[in-house]
Amino acid sequence: MTVQTINTTPFSDQKPGTSGLRKRVTVWQQPNYVENYIQAIFDSLEGFAGQTLVIGGDGRFYNDVAIQKAIRIAAANGFGRVLVGQGGLLSTPAASNIIRHYQAFGGLVLSASHNPGGPDGDFGIKYNIGNGGPAPEKITDAVFARSKVIDSYKSEDTPDIDLGTIGTQKVGDMTVEVIDPVTDYAALMQTLFDFDAIRALFAGGFRMTFDAMHAVTGPYAHAILEGILGAPKGTVINGVPSPSFNDGHPDPNLVYCKDMFDLLMTEAGPDFGAASDGDGDRNLIIGKNRFVTPSDSLALLAANAHLAPGYKGGIAGIARSMPTSAAADRVAEKLGIEMHETPTGWKFFGNLLDAGRVTICGEESAGTGSDHVREKDGLWAVLLWLNILAVRKQGVDQIVREHWATYGRNYYTRHDYEEVDAAIANALVDDLRGRLASLPGQVFDGLEVAYADDFTYHDPVDGSTSAKQGIRIGFTDGSRIVLRLSGTGTVGATLRLYLERYEPADGNHDLDTQSALQPLIELCERLAGVKARTQRTEPSVIT
Ligand code: G6P
Ligand code: ZN
Questions:
Q1: What is the mean pLDDT of the chain?
Q2: Is pLDDT at 224 greater than 90 in this prediction?
Q3: CA 402 from centre of chain
Q4: Catalytic-labelled residue, pool 19, 111, 113, 147
Q5: What's the gap in Å between 324 CA and the centre of ligand 1?
Q6: Is 445 or 291 the better-scoring residue by pLDDT?
Q7: What is the pLDDT of residues 29-84, one digit of tens each?
């Protein structure tokens, strides 16, 4: 076997977004597209000769092809060992754990998360560093710069590697170890949660349904929920990963999990419903008659984390992305711990977690996690909820209501306008940005603007600055409008509007969310003109 150096020409569009490079499969299928990107990543790193690289993905279409290329390029570039999940599978949080557990140099996570898969769907590649988390902007910027000038890549000339059998083989001078994707992750979960209490909960007749959405969490959920924790067979549905996610959209929200939601709203339904996305890092939590918004879930998990053995000493601090509601801030305030507001993207939590300044992090986009790995973790959130339910011996609805009665309720919604013409979306944001300075002090329908800015994050750990992270307009009563462009869309631009209103502990917590936020929704339209300028009558998705 020999190392080949193959000439190539650069692509201009290999700029990593919020979470790695995500493109249509047809884009990745262009000759050398995968090779260029992986070589650009390796060219942006130093000191990996002889080190370990973790590779795994969510099993979507093109995973198998890209993994073979990745292993060949890793071998030719001098990595000493690759750890790869059997069948090429690793959930994103499991990949993060494996990088940390085996002290790997880094890892390649092959996924487009919750985006649809299949030949017409999306594919993605993300590089994670040695702490197990997504590469910081310093690295992703370097990868993009390199991708624009790359003129060759290295590849080991070798037949396809067998990823179906657990064991060790050689590719050139590099060792390839095919490992079970679930074992290490399940062991980690056992150290964090009171599995006996959760087992007793199921044994006592508690019923849940977990929708793996034909994606990567199927094997993990079968093994942990039905295997180790003794939940009845059938608790996990859609548990066999499929390259096209059975032609579905593996995003655990109320649109794509509507059937589960409807079931949980009936008396005959189970006590608890949950789901995870394509690569296993997002979560959806629904109790009987109670959907828990991701922002509320973050606050609730932070407030109750001490009930799980892994967090019994308390948590050091909480971090949330800027558009996530301020519900968690009130918990941090009461606990007297640090609270951090970061830009959208899990990578921004990495430094805070590494420095031990925060223990629990969360985003409105259905991501919650802790310092156990450096990615958000869907099953972790589900298990923490189960641990809390088992200890408190209350239902989700009761726990949520008691939380609001203590901290108040942050009514919250997100309106997405997808596949908007990029020029229109950019102009809209630029215009609004230009008017921000004039807003503070102005009163609109009784709402006084307290501040208006484009969020700039100053990382308190490494001192780096990230500007233009989203427009925030805050009002004196605690309400807030946030507007930003998604960094994960693959076609046109996606405009996201985030609306939030605070209702105190003794206020009315039973309003319909959209009605409670209607005045803010109208004001947002007045200020930004999203419907008028995009010529849409309503959002593509409301969460
Ligand atoms: C991915 C990232 C998250 C992010 C989400 C939404 O899931 O891992 O950190 O919150 O995308 O990002 P977007 O830029 O589309 O709002
Ligand atoms: Zn995901």
A1: 95
A2: yes
A3: 28
A4: 113
A5: 11
A6: 291
A7: 999 999 999 999 999 999 999 999 999 999 999 999 999 999 999 999 999 999 99
pLDDT at 491: 76
Q: Is 113 a catalytic residue?
A: yes
pLDDT, mean of residues 229-257: 95
- Residue 427 Cα to ligand 1 midpoint, Å, equals 22
Say what the pLDDT of residue 492 is.
85
Please tell me the predicted confidence (pLDDT) of residue 112: 94
- 532: buried, middle or exposed (CB in 10 Å: 19+, 13-18, 0-12)? exposed
In the chain, the amino acid numbered 355 is A
Quick one: pLDDT band at residue 543, thresholds 50, 70, 90?
Answer: confident
Distance 160 CA to ligand 2 centre (A): 28
Kindly identify the ligand whose nearest atom is closest to the C-alpha of 93: 2
Pocket test for ligand 1, best of 15, 19, 91 (most atoms within 8 A of CB): 19
Homologous superfamily of the 409-542 domain (CATH): Alpha-D-phosphohexomutase, C-terminal domain (3.30.310.50)
pTM above 0.90, yes or no: yes
Cα 536 off chain centre by: 28
Annotation: CATH topology of 185-407: Alpha-D-Glucose-1,6-Bisphosphate; Chain A, domain 3 (3.40.120)
Which atom in ligand 1 lies closest to the alpha carbon of residue 375?
Answer: 8
Q: Which of 29, 31, 35, 37 is nearest to 12 (CA)?
A: 37
Is CATH 3.40.50.1440 what the domain over 2-180 is classified as, yes or no? no
For a mutational test of ligand 1's pocket, the pick from 344, 373, 457, i.e. the residue with the most ligand atoms closer than 8 A to its C-beta, is: 344
Dihedral sign, Cα of residue 70, residue 71, residue 75, residue 79? positive
What distance in Å separates the CA atoms of residue 154 and residue 157, rounded to the nearest whole number?
9
Residues near ion ligand 2 (Cβ under 5 Å): 113, 277, 279, 281-282
Please give the C-alpha separations between residue 154 and each of 140, 150, 159, 242, in angstroms, as whole numbers.
20, 12, 15, 31
* Residue to mutate, 365, 457, 466, 491, ligand 1, most ligand atoms under 8 Å from C-beta: 365
| Residue 437: pLDDT over 80 | yes
